[in-house]
Every structure is written in C-alpha cells, then in structure tokens.
Amino acid sequence: MMVQTLKLALLGSVILNASVALGAVASYNVPTRQAEGLRLIKTSDDDAGTWVTEEEKFEKFISQHVGFVDITDTMALETLRVDRLTSDVKRQTVQAFPSTASHQTEANALIAKLVQSNLSTWLNAMANIYNRYYRGSYAATSATWMYDTVVSVASTNSKITVKKFTHSYNQPSVIAAIPGTSDDVVIVSAHYDSIGSTTSGKAPGADDNASGIVVILEALRVLAAAKYAPTNTLEFHFYSGEEGGCLGSRDIMQSYAKNGVNVLAVMNQDMTGYSPNNVIAVYTDYVDSSLTAFIQKLVPIYTSLPLSTDKCGYGCSDHASARDAGFPAAYVCDENMKDSSPYIHSASDTVSTVSFPHVLQHAKLTVGFLVEASYF
C-alpha cells in the first residue's frame, strides 16, 4: 500500500473542540438564520463567517469572483476541519504516494480507447441547457440529464453503481462507483452546475464546467466498457451547487468523514477546455502537496502538454471540500489564473471557446491517474 491511513481515536467531542475554536458555533443559531433565508459564508480558513441572503451571496461574492464556501448546511465538516487543526488527538492521514507512474502499459491501453467526439456530444448537450444554476428553473432538468447520462455511460458494466446524493436544494449530485477489492476510495470529480451574469440569465457553462464533466464521463465510459477491475474502489463525482459555495461536494465529504470512508485521493477538475498557452495546470494551494506532486509527474507521462502551476486562492473549487474533510486532494485545470477564460460566469462561456483536443488531454490524464491510483 503506497498510502496508509492512520486513524487515531477521537477523545471527547469533536463538536465541542471546534466550537471553542470557532468562537462558539452554537452562537451561529443556524436553524433560525436558515429560517430567515440567510447563508453563512466564509472567505478564508480563519474567517468565522458572515450571514448573507442568497441575493447578497451572488452580488458580493459570485459576481465579484471572490473565493468562498457556504458552510450553512455543513457545520459538522467545518467543526471537523477546525478540530484537526486544534486538537492534540485527531484523525491524521499519512501519505506516501508513488515517486512516478508504474502502470503505463495498462493505462495506455485504456487511453487509446478515448473518443474525442463523445466529449463534444456531451458538452453541447450541457451547454444547450439554458442554465444549470443550482437554485434556478433548470436545476432539476440539468440534474436529470446528469444522472441519466451517467447511468447510460456506466451501463456496460453491471458492477458499477450510480446513485443520486440529495441536498437541501433541487439539484442532486451524482456518484458512480467501480467497486474494487478494497474499500479504500479514489475519487475524480467535477461540478455540473453553471452560473451567468445573473442567477436567472443564460449560462451555457461550456468551459465552467461542462468541460470538466465530460472528461470524467469519458474516463468512466472507457473503464466501464473495458470491465476494468481496480484494486481500490474508483468513484466519479458529479457535483451540483459548486457555484453556490461548493455545496454539493461539502455535503458529500461531510457524509464520507462522518461514515469513516477511507478516501485515499481526490483529483478535482474545474475547466479543461480553454487554454491559450496549451498547458495542463496543476494548482498548488489548498491542496495536498504529496498528491499534487504525484499528479504533476503524470502530466508529461500521460499527456502531450507541458505542465503549468499556479495558485487559485480560497474556495476556488470542490477540492476544498475534500481538504476540509482531511482527505488528500488536488486540483487540475486548463490554464493559469492570468490567462484563464474571460468568458466564465456569462452567456459567452459557449462551446465555441472550447478546444476539444485540449479536453481530450485532460481525459488522458484522468484515465492514467485512475489506473495508477487503483494501486495506491
């Protein structure tokens, strides 16, 4: 086992420890605030949070491109994060990821089966939904498309399970799992919701983040068709509500932490199709440094593109939720911050801005990662 998890006993109440560090979580009076239609927003690890309305969340954070997470429904995850930092006795993950790729023959045989036209077909279908905002009129429509598509893609292997993970809003996340001989879990993820210049405006979300979704869909299709039998269980997470503050992924990671799911690694992708520098960007902040270093080594092995690195700040995508739960997480994107798509969060984030050959390179990296991670 290249990754070993050491679980130390939790003494006392996690909630109590974290409450002290947070300045008394109970004082948030979450049920009352929720009943008033307010949400608790954080813009840094040290931020105790600010209560805002849904409208203020969009106006002050989303439209201003401020990194944030919404912890209203996931206070247990927040208390777990703080407890890991403040408690002398905590759940601790000890990692020793491989020094390089060691399953290239197996991975390359699967990579050869990737089909670029599938990426285009699915991405066009997603972009044709008026918007995929998690609280919008098309939230349920986009969720139905997501679930039905995952079920269809996974149907070539009867061992694969596909389930909806419901949230407090009307847009469930979707999880597909290829069972391994081990209960240890490796996750690849992307979010399928989108947001425009207003909450009800047109939001094709082609790069952000239909491009990430189609990458893991095509990886799932290839592994399903090949009846791939991993050692570690491989999960494909299609999150909702990312644009609202990583809502879907936080719900899921809170559940996994509560239920003792042993997550070995999470590779999240958010935007894979707009890259003027034609690079694979692997971000280095708010991630697990060891897992990130391993993925950086995979880029020149499984893709034909150069590696770029950058930092994206607090709460920039769903890997933040895995990190808060104490799981090793990494973030892969199509470009550095300075040269990233200027069209996201608008009606101009269209299919015409997406390079499908570039998206295919991300799919190659994803399959390579999944095969390598199967043996962690």
TrEMBL record:
<keyword id="KW-1015">Disulfide bond</keyword>
<keyword id="KW-0378">Hydrolase</keyword>
<feature type="domain" description="Peptidase M28">
    <location>
        <begin position="174"/>
        <end position="365"/>
    </location>
</feature>
<dbReference type="GO" id="GO:0046872">
    <property type="term" value="F:metal ion binding"/>
</dbReference>
<feature type="signal peptide">
    <location>
        <begin position="1"/>
        <end position="23"/>
    </location>
</feature>
<dbReference type="GO" id="GO:0008235">
    <property type="term" value="F:metalloexopeptidase activity"/>
</dbReference>
<keyword id="KW-0645">Protease</keyword>
<keyword id="KW-0865">Zymogen</keyword>
<keyword id="KW-0031">Aminopeptidase</keyword>
<keyword id="KW-0862">Zinc</keyword>
<comment type="subunit">
    <text>Monomer.</text>
</comment>
<keyword id="KW-0732">Signal</keyword>
<protein>
    <recommendedName>
        <fullName>Peptide hydrolase</fullName>
        <ecNumber>3.4.-.-</ecNumber>
    </recommendedName>
</protein>
<dbReference type="GO" id="GO:0004177">
    <property type="term" value="F:aminopeptidase activity"/>
</dbReference>
<keyword id="KW-0479">Metal-binding</keyword>
<keyword id="KW-0325">Glycoprotein</keyword>
<comment type="similarity">
    <text>Belongs to the peptidase M28 family. M28E subfamily.</text>
</comment>
<dbReference type="Pfam" id="PF04389">
    <property type="entry name" value="Peptidase_M28"/>
</dbReference>
<dbReference type="InterPro" id="IPR007484">
    <property type="entry name" value="Peptidase_M28"/>
</dbReference>
<comment type="function">
    <text>Extracellular aminopeptidase that allows assimilation of proteinaceous substrates.</text>
</comment>
<dbReference type="InterPro" id="IPR045175">
    <property type="entry name" value="M28_fam"/>
</dbReference>
<dbReference type="GO" id="GO:0006508">
    <property type="term" value="P:proteolysis"/>
</dbReference>
